[in-house]
Write a structure and sequence with these properties.
About 45% of the residues lie in helices and about 15% in strands. It has about 475 residues and is of the alpha/beta class. It has 3 domains: about 120 residues, Probable tRNA modification gtpase trme, domain 1 (Gyrase A, domain 2), CATH 3.30.1360.120; about 130 residues, tRNA modification GTPase MnmE domain 2 (Four Helix Bundle (Hemerythrin (Met), subunit A)); about 160 residues, Rossmann fold (3-Layer(aba) Sandwich). Helix 4 packs antiparallel against helix 5 and helix 14 runs antiparallel to helix 15.
Length: about 475
């Protein structure tokens, strides 16, 4: 799995900019860059102290051609991101300088890094545990300050510390139980069984509390997906523009203007929201518009929340009724638009189409901006009613962590049942070890190549 070689990659986005960085990690990082580095003052990278910067140029050793003016940073093991020797070449950001320098580095013996390989080496070398490594990706992808804050807490080891403490308690249980397995002539006293049961119930309660945080916290990692749906010309695109405060979608009086799903990100009180403007739902014969309607219906199925929008200046028509039918069993907010025009449609016309009164109904004017802030608050409260900004405490945001905790709870539950039902002590020990292993998957104490591959393949090359 791990290769003892030197890897290299461009670690900044390709494009024009002030600075671009080529990063190397591995035992030959310094010697490789030394071969293509030219110092006007004849200074050597091999003699440069750790975490120091040296000015110079990159030269093609074959042609003696100057490639770019650069700054080189040398960081020596173990005080680096990967705990290996790391060299970063700061050059002018542009496709040609970056690509040319990377080619020279690869020619001199480095290998192009795989996606996430720098962070994987940080994990393998003990710089990060697995949940912290995942937090690196969460931090890179964070779209709001609240998402960033949660990712930083994970990166600093909040979840890791909590899981490690719980695992230590499970280890203590294992030690005690296996002592009885090794000495079968010693029967377990009833009081000892009660102590074990009490300890397991305490651990179970902690895991349940941890698991409970996932219901809300996951949205700050994954984002909330919202589909705006309705028949043509009810104001879907106008609502998208009003929420974004910019003209993102084309708005015309002609039905069928929106042919495809338009996606944008929105920040609602720290909650990252992926909002989708969809094609108007109606019976059509045009092939392109029919495909748009099909995608609209798919968006309803896949969205966390549906905003069903209706024209308040007109009575419900057959196409509106189809929208109501498609959304009645979904997480939905009902929006009556065009409240700046004379009212024809009101809440009493829509409520009968729902089996419960749980659906929130709001009146807005997308063109004038009336009710938009109330709609944003309704979106947030629909999923995060009790969320406090800057919430403290350990949070579970990752589906992989959630599944591992659920598996640990299942094993712990079977162990508790085993004690109550006088099951063989070996069975109880097996279930506790299984719970221990499930939690170990979160921090990387228990890993497989499949787990690592599925995590690190989502990283960009260079990180």
């Amino acid at each position: 799995m791990f290769k003892d070689d030197t890897i290299a990659a461009i670690s900044t986005p390709i494009g024009e900019g002030g600075i671009g960085i080529i990063r190397l990690s591995g035992k030959d990082s310094v010697s490789i860059v030394e071969k293509i580095f030219y110092s006007p003052k004849n200074k050597s990278l091999e003699d440069l102290p750790s975490h120091k910067i040296l000015y110079g140029f990159i030269k093609d050793p074959l042609t003696d051609e100057m490639i770019d003016e650069i700054l080189v940073t040398v960081m020596r093991s173990p005080h680096t991101y990967t705990k290996e020797d790391v060299v970063e070449i700061n050059c002018h950001s542009g496709m040609l300088p970056l690509r040319k320098i990377l080619e020279l580095v690869l020619k001199e013996g480095a290998r192009l890094a795989d996606p996430g390989e720098f962070t994987m080496r940080a994990f393998i070398n003990g710089r990060l545990d697995l949940s912290q490594a995942e937090a690196v990706l969460d931090l890179i992808r964070a779209k709001t300050d609240e998402s960033r804050r949660i990712a930083i807490e994970q990166l600093q080891g909040g979840l890791s510390e909590k899981i490690t403490i719980i695992r230590d308690r499970l280890k203590d249980l294992c030690v005690n139980i296996e002592a009885y397995i090794d000495f079968p002539e010693e029967d377990i006293e009833p009081a000892t069984k009660e102590e074990m049961k009490k300890s397991m119930e305490g651990i179970k309660l902690e895991l349940l509390r941890l698991l409970e945080t996932y219901k809300e916290a996951r949205f700050f990692r994954e984002g909330l997906s919202i589909a705006i749906v309705g028949r043509p010309n009810v104001g879907k695109s106008s609502l998208l523009n009003a929420l974004l405060r910019k003209d993102r979608a084309i708005v015309t009086p002609l039905p069928g203007t929106t042919r495809d799903v338009i996606e944008e990100y929105l920040n609602i009180r720290g909650l990252p929201v992926r909002i989708m403007d969809t094609a108007g739902i109606r019976k059509v014969h045009d092939i392109a518009e029919r495909e748009g309607v099909k995608r609209s219906l798919q968006s309803i199925e896949n969205a966390d929340l549906v905003i069903a929008i209706f024209d308040g200046s007109e009575k419900l028509c057959e196409e509106d009724l189809e929208v109501l039918d498609k959304t009645k069993d979904k997480n939905a907010l009902i929006v009556i638009n065009k409240c700046d025009l004379p009212h024809v449609l009101d809440e009493s016309s829509i409520i009968p189409y729902f089996s419960s009164n749980e659906h929130c109904i709001l009146c807005i004017s997308a063109t004038r901006g009336d009710g938009i802030e109330e709609l944003k608050s309704s979106i947030f409260n629909h999923f995060l009613k009790d969320w406090k900004e800057g919430r403290e405490g350990v949070l579970v945001t990752n589906i992989r962590h959630k599944i591992a905790i659920e598996n640990a709870l299942s094993s712990l539950g079977r162990a508790l049942s085993g004690i109550s039902e006088y099951a063989p002590i070996e069975i109880i020990a097996f279930e506790i070890r299984d719970s221990l292993d499930s939690l170990g998957e979160i921090i990387g104490a228990i890993t497989t190549d499949d787990i690592l591959d599925s995590i690190f393949k989502n990283f960009c090359i260079g990180k």
